[in-house]
Automatic annotation (TrEMBL):
InterPro entries: CDC50/LEM3_fam (IPR005045). Transmembrane segments: none annotated. The keyword Transmembrane applies. It comes from Linum trigynum. This is ALA-interacting subunit. Its main location: membrane. Belongs to the CDC50/LEM3 family.
């Protein structure tokens, strides 16, 4: 087969459609810098003593590291997680001027390290997890 080859897989017993999980996010906050304080629907992960968490909510905190490996003719095949989000999602659902803040602050730590110098529209894996509930 010629590349690129796209792999899709399904998780079982991962309750991303549970009512509390699905509602715990702010689409406005992810799209518009001016709406960083829009955390009303993000409970229980909405604010720290330093201010609003961007991105807020359980959906943002559920980034995980799933480990897998592909082998062809006894050689490991490189797997890239770059540019896996739809271009329309990167350009229209997530603001290019919205930067993570307070995500790794306080007593609890989010599901992954989001670089404060990169807007939420850049980490493709973050966008694909967010789109599960859209």
């Amino acid at each position: 087969m010629k590349g690129p080859i796209f792999i899709y897989y399904q998780l079982e017993n991962f309750y991303q459609n549970h009512r509390r999980y699905v509602k715990s996010r702010s689409d406005k906050q992810l799209k518009y810098k001016a709406d960083a304080d829009d955390t009303g629907s993000c409970s229980p992960e909405a604010n720290t003593d330093k201010g609003p968490i961007v991105p807020c909510g359980l959906v943002a905190w559920s980034l995980f590291n799933d480990t897998y490996k592909f082998v062809m003719q006894n050689k490991a095949v490189d797997v890239s997680k770059k540019n896996i989000a739809w271009e329309s999602d990167r350009n229209h659902k997530f603001g290019s001027d919205v930067y993570p803040q307070n995500f790794q602050s306080g007593g609890l730590i989010g599901g992954a390290n989001l670089e404060t110098s990169k807007p939420v529209s850049k980490p493709s894996l973050f966008i694909t997890i967010q789109d599960v509930t859209s």
